[in-house]
Design a protein that fits this description.
This protein has 10 helices and 4 strands; from the N terminus they run βαβαββαααααααα. The protein has 225 residues and is α+β, with helices and mostly antiparallel strands. The chain folds into 2 domains: 78 residues, Glutaredoxin; 134 residues, Glutathione S-transferase Yfyf (Class Pi), Chain A, domain 2. Strand 3 and strand 4 form a beta hairpin. Helix 1 crosses helix 7, helix 3 packs antiparallel against helix 7 and helix 4 runs parallel beside helix 7. It is globular and about 50 Å long. It comes from Litorivivens lipolytica.
Length: 225
Amino acid sequence: MTKPKLWHSYSARSLRPLWALEEMELDYELELLPFPPRVFKREYLELNALGTVPFFTHGDTEMTESSGICLYLVETFKQLDFGLPVGHAEYGDYLNWLFHSDATLTFPQTIALRYSQLEPKDRRLPQAVEDYSTWFIKRLKRLNAHLEGREYLCDGRFTIADIAIGYALYLGESLGLDQFYEPIVVDYWQRLKSRPAFIKAEAMGSEQALFKAVKYPFTDAPELF
């Protein structure tokens, strides 16, 4: 079977599967795209009608969901050192963190990012930025509690659940929201971003970055919690 191929834009959710590919030391192809590719590389729409990243192929398989691609890599390439098998006592928790990472954590950040940096200045909405940033920080409560006494999320070891949640923390840092992380989350995030595979993956495509890390413009921290 052909080796997997990933289409990636710097700082986008495609960092999740790219990080996973590096952790698993798999042989893969990488296509770097400017963000958002549906605007700056229109021909990409012929390949992926959504115009989003990631886009992933492996033989006849095509995928667009970052955490799903990570799960596919674990199960297809038998990389169970980075996942948990069905029947494991923490399997449900493992799956929950994978889905929680986007449905609960990344979604509000994408709204904040859009209306703070990506829209033209006359379309930016400070109130939306503040509201959705608040949403994200409040929804870190489960992570705050879960990390008590833990180094990683599941089974006492690093898995793709950490990659999925780690990207949400990475995006929060780029929005200046890391100043509101609880100390236990700060320590956890430091462990994740110190991993050699993350450092290597995060640098890929950095010359095409559309937005830079910023300082969060609102300072009314008590309301965020």
